[in-house]
Amino acid sequence: MNIRGRNKVTPEFNMASMTDIVFLLLIFFMIASTLVTTNAIDIILPKASGKTENKKSTAVSIKGDLTYYIDQKRVGESVLESQLIDILSKQEQPTIVLRAEKTVPVEHVVKVMDIANRNKFKVILAVKPN
Predict the structure, then answer these.
(1) Residue 26's pLDDT is what?
(2) Greater pLDDT, 40 or 64
(3) Model confidence over 26-35: pLDDT tens digits?
(4) SS3 for 123?
(5) Domain 57-125 falls in which CATH fold?
(6) Parallel, antiparallel, or unpaired: how do β-strands 95-100 and 122-125 relate?
(7) pTM score of the predicted model
(8) Taking a C-beta distance cutoff of 8 angstroms, is the pair 115, 105 a contact?
(9) Which of 57, 78, 121, 130 could cross-link to 95 by cystine, CB 3.0-4.6 Å?
(10) What is the number of other CB atoms lying within 10 angstroms of the CB of residue 98?
(11) Cα 95 to Cα 124: distance, rounded to the nearest angstrom
């Protein structure tokens, strides 16, 4: 007597449905990622209501007639860098507060910033509060 069942269960797994799901998820995330832009991120920035206090800073002022001042002492444009190095070399965290009049061309402000960048000085640009 042959007692074998007619229905045999095969232990194989059909991967066709799994690959369909993976491709649908892939298409969904590709479409969703193109809709998100970096400009769409809203960030609430903190407001500055007080003054930044830095007692160990040196003020560099540029007047409208293009005269340079270091802490209210008039300095020539050619010796500005050497004077700043002499003054700020003694400080642990050298900081320059840059005050420039509205009429001063940008090139002169950038020149002071370039001096600070070359010598690893921190620069704070002074502006008038609203």
Answers:
(1) 93
(2) 64
(3) 999 888 877 6
(4) strand
(5) Nucleotidyltransferase; domain 5 (3.30.420)
(6) parallel
(7) 0.56
(8) no
(9) 57
(10) 17
(11) 7
